[in-house]
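Translate sequence into C-alpha coordinates.
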Amino acid sequence: CPCSGAPYLVCSGSARIPNNRKGIHALLRCHSLQPIEFIAEKIPANYPRTFTHLGDHIRAKRLNLGVQMQEAAKLMGVHQVTLKNWEHKYFEEPAIKHWPGIIKFLGYCPYTPCATLPEKVVMYRKVEGISLEEMARKVGIDPGTLGRFEKEFNVSKSSMALIQDFWSNTI
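Result follows.
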Protein backbone atom coordinates (compact mmCIF):
# COMPACT_ATOMS: atom_id res chain seq x y z
CA CYS A 1 0.00 0.00 0.00
CA PRO A 2 1.42 3.46 -0.85
CA CYS A 3 0.36 4.77 2.53
CA SER A 4 2.89 2.56 4.31
CA GLY A 5 5.08 4.49 6.64
CA ALA A 6 2.93 7.58 6.61
CA PRO A 7 3.35 8.95 10.11
CA TYR A 8 -0.03 10.68 10.22
CA LEU A 9 -2.18 8.15 8.39
CA VAL A 10 -3.79 4.80 8.95
CA CYS A 11 -4.85 3.29 5.67
CA SER A 12 -8.30 1.77 5.43
CA GLY A 13 -7.98 1.13 1.70
CA SER A 14 -6.37 -2.27 2.07
CA ALA A 15 -4.95 -2.84 5.53
CA ARG A 16 -4.69 -0.86 8.74
CA ILE A 17 -1.21 0.42 9.21
CA PRO A 18 -0.07 1.22 12.73
CA ASN A 19 0.66 4.89 13.06
CA ASN A 20 4.14 5.72 14.21
CA ARG A 21 3.90 9.31 15.40
CA LYS A 22 1.86 11.07 18.06
CA GLY A 23 -1.08 8.63 18.01
CA ILE A 24 -2.63 10.34 15.01
CA HIS A 25 -5.06 8.38 12.84
CA ALA A 26 -6.88 9.03 9.59
CA LEU A 27 -9.00 7.14 7.11
CA LEU A 28 -7.60 7.04 3.60
CA ARG A 29 -8.89 5.70 0.31
CA CYS A 30 -5.74 4.65 -1.45
CA HIS A 31 -4.82 5.50 -5.02
CA SER A 32 -7.39 8.21 -5.61
CA LEU A 33 -7.98 11.90 -5.33
CA GLN A 34 -11.10 11.31 -3.25
CA PRO A 35 -11.57 13.12 0.06
CA ILE A 36 -9.97 11.72 3.17
CA GLU A 37 -11.66 12.02 6.54
CA PHE A 38 -9.38 12.77 9.47
CA ILE A 39 -10.24 11.54 12.93
CA ALA A 40 -7.16 13.09 14.45
CA GLU A 41 -7.25 15.84 17.01
CA LYS A 42 -3.70 17.01 16.37
CA ILE A 43 -2.09 17.10 12.98
CA PRO A 44 0.50 19.54 11.67
CA ALA A 45 -1.00 22.86 10.62
CA ASN A 46 0.22 22.51 7.04
CA TYR A 47 -0.86 18.86 6.64
CA PRO A 48 -3.70 18.47 4.09
CA ARG A 49 -7.10 18.02 5.72
CA THR A 50 -8.62 16.62 2.53
CA PHE A 51 -7.02 14.93 -0.44
CA THR A 52 -8.94 16.39 -3.35
CA HIS A 53 -6.03 17.64 -5.42
CA LEU A 54 -2.68 16.28 -6.55
CA GLY A 55 -0.93 18.92 -4.43
CA ASP A 56 -2.51 17.41 -1.30
CA HIS A 57 -0.93 14.03 -2.07
CA ILE A 58 2.46 15.61 -2.76
CA ARG A 59 2.43 17.73 0.40
CA ALA A 60 1.36 14.78 2.57
CA LYS A 61 4.13 12.58 1.14
CA ARG A 62 6.70 15.34 1.61
CA LEU A 63 5.65 15.87 5.23
CA ASN A 64 5.56 12.13 5.85
CA LEU A 65 9.13 11.86 4.59
CA GLY A 66 10.17 14.91 6.60
CA VAL A 67 11.78 16.62 3.61
CA GLN A 68 11.78 20.27 2.66
CA MET A 69 10.20 21.51 -0.54
CA GLN A 70 13.58 21.99 -2.22
CA GLU A 71 14.61 18.37 -1.61
CA ALA A 72 11.22 17.00 -2.70
CA ALA A 73 11.38 19.06 -5.89
CA LYS A 74 14.83 17.64 -6.62
CA LEU A 75 13.53 14.09 -6.07
CA MET A 76 10.73 14.74 -8.59
CA GLY A 77 13.02 16.48 -11.07
CA VAL A 78 11.19 19.81 -10.97
CA HIS A 79 11.94 23.33 -9.81
CA GLN A 80 10.98 24.28 -6.24
CA VAL A 81 8.59 26.95 -7.56
CA THR A 82 6.80 24.31 -9.64
CA LEU A 83 6.33 22.14 -6.58
CA LYS A 84 5.07 25.12 -4.58
CA ASN A 85 2.53 25.86 -7.32
CA TRP A 86 1.24 22.27 -7.18
CA GLU A 87 1.03 22.19 -3.40
CA HIS A 88 -0.78 25.53 -3.27
CA LYS A 89 -3.07 24.52 -6.16
CA TYR A 90 -2.01 27.34 -8.45
CA PHE A 91 -1.82 24.82 -11.30
CA GLU A 92 -4.48 22.17 -11.73
CA GLU A 93 -2.56 19.66 -13.82
CA PRO A 94 1.21 19.11 -14.16
CA ALA A 95 2.77 18.81 -17.59
CA ILE A 96 2.96 15.26 -18.95
CA LYS A 97 6.76 15.30 -18.69
CA HIS A 98 6.54 15.71 -14.89
CA TRP A 99 4.29 12.73 -14.20
CA PRO A 100 6.96 9.99 -14.04
CA GLY A 101 8.82 11.95 -11.33
CA ILE A 102 5.60 12.63 -9.40
CA ILE A 103 4.54 8.98 -9.48
CA LYS A 104 8.02 7.84 -8.45
CA PHE A 105 8.04 10.32 -5.55
CA LEU A 106 4.56 9.37 -4.34
CA GLY A 107 5.10 5.65 -4.88
CA TYR A 108 1.70 5.35 -6.58
CA CYS A 109 -0.47 6.97 -9.21
CA PRO A 110 -2.94 9.23 -7.37
CA TYR A 111 -5.81 8.78 -9.79
CA THR A 112 -8.62 6.24 -9.84
CA PRO A 113 -8.45 3.47 -12.44
CA CYS A 114 -9.53 4.47 -15.94
CA ALA A 115 -12.70 3.01 -17.41
CA THR A 116 -12.48 3.85 -21.11
CA LEU A 117 -9.72 3.29 -23.63
CA PRO A 118 -9.28 7.05 -24.21
CA GLU A 119 -8.81 7.56 -20.45
CA LYS A 120 -6.31 4.69 -20.39
CA VAL A 121 -4.33 6.19 -23.26
CA VAL A 122 -4.14 9.57 -21.48
CA MET A 123 -3.03 7.90 -18.24
CA TYR A 124 -0.44 5.80 -20.13
CA ARG A 125 1.00 9.02 -21.56
CA LYS A 126 1.14 10.57 -18.08
CA VAL A 127 2.83 7.58 -16.49
CA GLU A 128 5.34 7.32 -19.33
CA GLY A 129 5.77 11.09 -19.56
CA ILE A 130 5.32 11.17 -23.33
CA SER A 131 3.71 13.88 -25.43
CA LEU A 132 0.67 13.53 -27.62
CA GLU A 133 2.91 13.79 -30.68
CA GLU A 134 5.25 11.03 -29.47
CA MET A 135 2.33 8.74 -28.63
CA ALA A 136 0.76 9.38 -32.03
CA ARG A 137 4.05 8.41 -33.71
CA LYS A 138 4.15 5.16 -31.69
CA VAL A 139 0.57 4.34 -32.65
CA GLY A 140 1.05 5.38 -36.27
CA ILE A 141 -1.64 8.06 -36.48
CA ASP A 142 -1.85 11.84 -36.73
CA PRO A 143 -1.51 13.75 -33.40
CA GLY A 144 -4.79 15.56 -34.10
CA THR A 145 -6.58 12.24 -34.47
CA LEU A 146 -5.13 10.95 -31.20
CA GLY A 147 -6.12 14.20 -29.49
CA ARG A 148 -9.71 13.79 -30.69
CA PHE A 149 -9.70 10.17 -29.55
CA GLU A 150 -8.46 11.16 -26.07
CA LYS A 151 -11.36 13.62 -25.82
CA GLU A 152 -13.67 10.73 -26.75
CA PHE A 153 -14.63 12.04 -30.16
CA ASN A 154 -15.20 9.59 -33.01
CA VAL A 155 -12.18 8.69 -35.12
CA SER A 156 -11.98 6.68 -38.33
CA LYS A 157 -12.18 2.88 -38.17
CA SER A 158 -8.61 2.58 -39.43
CA SER A 159 -7.31 4.94 -36.72
CA MET A 160 -9.34 3.12 -34.08
CA ALA A 161 -7.91 -0.20 -35.24
CA LEU A 162 -4.34 1.18 -34.93
CA ILE A 163 -5.03 2.49 -31.42
CA GLN A 164 -6.59 -0.78 -30.29
CA ASP A 165 -3.77 -2.79 -31.87
CA PHE A 166 -1.16 -0.64 -30.13
CA TRP A 167 -2.97 -0.96 -26.81
CA SER A 168 -3.41 -4.72 -26.95
CA ASN A 169 0.12 -5.46 -28.24
CA THR A 170 2.13 -2.90 -26.30
CA ILE A 171 0.46 -2.40 -22.98
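Note: Residues 157-170 form the longest helix (14 residues).
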